[in-house]
Amino acid sequence: MTNRCTQGARKLISASQIRKTYTDASNTITVFDDLSFTVKAGETIALMGESGAGKSTLLHLLGGFDQPDSGTISIDGHTITDMKDGPLSRFRRQHLGMIFQQYNLIPSLCARDNISFVRRLNGLCAEDEFTRELISVLKLEQRLDHYPAQLSGGEQQRVAIARALASRPSMILADEPTGNLDERTANQVMEQLMQAVALHNSTLLLVTHSAQTADYLNSTWHLEQGQLQC
Ligand SMILES: Nc1ncnc2c1ncn2[C@@H]1O[C@H](COP(=O)(O)OP(=O)(O)OP(=O)(O)O)[C@@H](O)[C@H]1O
Ligand SMILES: [Mg+2]
């Protein structure tokens, strides 16, 4: 369990008056009407709430994968809600690490190349001192030449965590990263994820339905009726 002090830390995420609706032929779902919040650099936050509360929608908005109907989102001083597609993709590559429930590794690349993929896109060397430490913390040294199909679920998720953290993004977003794992493996992955996040004092927002998983993070926010109870 981590206990990092973020007192006096700068604001990393600032969301102001977010409205997000989904409309289809027959109706409109309002997920957020007027949502505002900030997250300080170095905070690790578990995001909980009922199914359909809008947790994944919120991560997609923060990661710039989707746009709000109105309102602004700034990450590390960059207003992503004003960005066009090209600069937004570049921003995402450089500032965001995303971890999904389904791992989303590239099947044709071995673990080593999956981990270095975003680094290479960012023009960084494939490995450095930091990535070697990351691989060691995540206990992946013996699995680097394996392809995703040759890895267990927990191993694939650890590779996905290494990939998300390898280029030292300022913000990590994780959507139910242990949702597919048995309890023991989920705890191991969470322990290693928190150690890996601590290496670079990264900011982490992690969606989970498990109170046990939430205990690994500094604080828990509950999403209810479009508002965050912190
Ligand atoms: N692309 C979409 N089109 C229409 N409605 C959507 C879309 N994506 C999400 N929704 C709706 O928005 C609401 C919030 O969905 P979201 O996926 O964010 O919930 P969640 O909190 O992540 O739920 P879960 O815990 O089940 O993953 C739900 O009512 C969902 O049906
Ligand atoms: Mg979801």
Describe this structure as you would to a colleague.
- With 230 residues, this protein is α/β, with parallel strands linked by helices.
- The protein has one domain (43-64, 84-229): 3-Layer(aba) Sandwich (Rossmann fold), CATH 3.40.50.300.
- It contains seven helices and ten strands.
- The strands form two sheets. The chain has a six-stranded mixed β-sheet with strand order 6-7-8-3-9-10, with helices on both faces.
- The model has no long low-confidence stretch (mean pLDDT 94).
- It binds adenosine-5'-triphosphate and magnesium ion.
Concise summary:
With 230 residues, the chain is of the alpha/beta class.
Layout: helices, strands, pairs:
Blueprint: E1 11-23, E2 28-40, E3 44-48, H1 55-62, E4 70-75, E5 78-79, H2 85-95, E6 96-99, H3 111-121, H4 129-137, H5 153-165, E7 171-175, H6 183-199, E8 203-207, H7 211-214, E9 219-224, E10 227-229
Parallel strand pairs: 3-8, 3-9, 6-7, 7-8
Antiparallel strand pairs: 1-2, 1-4, 4-5, 9-10
Helix pairs in contact: 3-5, 4-6, 5-6
Bound molecules: adenosine-5'-triphosphate and magnesium ion.
Magnesium ion binds next to α1.
Q: What attributes does this structure have?
A:
230 residues; alpha/beta; Rossmann fold; six-stranded mixed sheet; binds magnesium ion
The arrangement of helices and strands along the chain is EEEHEEHEHHHEHEHEE
Q: How much helix is in the residues? A: 25-40%
Number of DSSP helices?
A: 7
Fill in the CATH topology. Rossmann fold
